[in-house]
Amino acid sequence: MSARRADAALAAARRLDELALNASAAFQSLVYDGWLLGYRRGPTKRLRCVNPFYRSTLPLAQKIERCVQFYASIGLPAIFRLLPFSLPPRLDGLLERKGWGRFDPTRVLRTELDGSIAPPLPAVRVVVMPLPEWELKAAPVLDVPPEIVAQDVERARRYPLPQAGAIVELDGQVVACGLVKLEGDHAGLFAVSTAEEFRGRGLGRAIVAALLAEAKSRGARTAYLQVTTANAAAIALYRSFGFVPAYEYWYRAREGEQH
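Above: the chain sequence. Below: its structure as tokens.
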């Protein structure tokens, strides 16, 4: 691959990652010399870590130490998210040499919505709904603590871009869910999950099909999502919808802080 094509591929990957952060409503963040320092508490590490996106000017050791101090001051572990386009390129190797362990490798997948989307299984009824209502219904499947649900509902009400949630209910119980967020002609799929005791019935496939159909109806041309490399079942499911790898990222943190 020529240098020009490689630069274009990295720029496209960076833009896709920016879309994903926008879709995740990464409101709580600071910009520090080209690095985005997220500090939104919760299980999503992408929103509470250092994202080294853009060109740096300060000494690297100084920047790393400043990040460590910042996260310590707010009671969060210092975590770096490393991507193919992280800057400077030597950051990953430097962290490794300093003992920052690598964990949770994740694939970003994408597909073009230019073909037919397989319909949900006939016996599965998927309901698509506004996100504030979805937050309430999906919380048990996603193990969201009650004290956090109200915050998520309010955040969904204030989110400025198009979005929708999908659920499957059986006997009055929500057993599968997922959501889609749109920006321009891109649609991101998030929080696709099935209650453990109901897995293996095609409910996840039904949710994904419904979300892709909703995205396409709203003018999306490309869909993307993120999945850990260890989740072979999910990767196989997404492959059946035409998703292919776009890029990978991983985290680094000191021993005892890899969570």
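Residues 115-220 form a domain with the Aminopeptidase fold (CATH 3.40.630.30).
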